[in-house]
User: Fold this.
Amino acid sequence: MGLEIITTITGGAVGAVGPVALAPVVLGAIGFTSTGIAAGSYAASMMSAAAVTNGGGVAAGSLVAVLQSAGAAGLSPTFAMVLAITGGTIGTCVGRAVGCLSSIFQRRREKKKEEDMEMVISGIAIMALIMWLKK
Assistant:
C-alpha cells in the first residue's frame, strides 16, 4: 500500500473519530458542563452576549443553547454523525495532501541521489583518465 493511500485513510479515520471523542472535553473546557454553564468561562461570555442580543434570554436552537445541551447531555447521535462526517472529510483531504507532498519530496530525494551518484562516477572516470594520461 502506498504512502498516499495510508495517509489518506489515516487522515480520514482521525478526522472522523477525533472530533467526536474530543467534543465533550472541549465543551467542558470552555464552560459548557453537565451542571450548566460555568461562571466566568468563555461559555458564560457567549451566553451573556446571546442574552443581550435577544433582549434578555437565550433563544432556543441558538448556538449557545445547542452547545449547552451537548455539554449537559452529551452529543446527540445526529450531531455526532455530522461531526464525524465533517471531520472525516476534512481529515481525508488533509491526509491526501500530506501523502501527495510526501511522495513529491521522496521523488525529489531519489532524483538528487541519482544525480549525486552520476557526479561521483563522472569524478572517478575523470580521475582515472588523468592518471592514465600521466603515464
About this structure: The mean pLDDT is 90. The longest strand covers residues 32-33. The two ends are 55 Å apart (CA to CA).
